[in-house]
Amino acid sequence: MIKQSRQFDIGFQGRRRFCQTATQSWTLSELCAKAGVSKSVLSEKLIALIGHSPIEYLTLWRLQIAAHWLMAPNMTLERVAERSG
């Protein structure tokens, strides 16, 4: 049970980092360094937790941010791109 909890925590922490800093130009290596795990471990845990690889999830999250900002009045496409990464 402890091992399973640690696996969930790795995936959850990786996902949380994405959400908090989605506009940063992340590389998979940087994400893994922040999470303190290897690329394969982070990928495995996120796929198990949310069904997407780290980079897929980051892309989807950025698209959601962009969609939100595109609905805002007086928001230019350039500003949306800056805010969504």
What would you note in describing this structure?
The protein is an all-alpha fold. The protein has a single domain (2-84), classed as Homeodomain-like (Arc Repressor Mutant, subunit A, Orthogonal Bundle). 75% of the residues lie in helices and 0% in strands. It is built from 5 helices and no strands. The protein is elongated. The model is unreliable at 1-8 (pLDDT under 50).
Condensed summary:
InterPro entries: HTH_AraC. The protein has helices at residues 2-20, 28-35, 39-50, 54-70, 77-84.
Alpha carbon gap, first and last residue = 37 Å
Report the strand count.
0
CATH class: Mainly Alpha
Number of structural domains: 1
Strand content: under 5%
Q: How can the largest sheet be summarized?
A: none
CATH topology, which one?
Answer: Arc Repressor Mutant, subunit A
Give the structural class.
Answer: mainly alpha
By CATH, the architecture is named Orthogonal Bundle
Q: How many distinct helices?
A: 5
* Low-confidence residue ranges: 1-8
Q: Looking at the structure, what is the overall shape?
A: elongated
Mean pLDDT, all residues: 76
What's the Cα radius of gyration? 14 Å
> Helical amount among residues, as a percent range?
over 70%
- CATH level 4 superfamily: Homeodomain-like
What is the H/E order? HHHHH
Pfam family, one: HTH_18
Domain HTH araC/xylS-type: 24-85
Protein name: HTH araC/xylS-type domain-containing protein
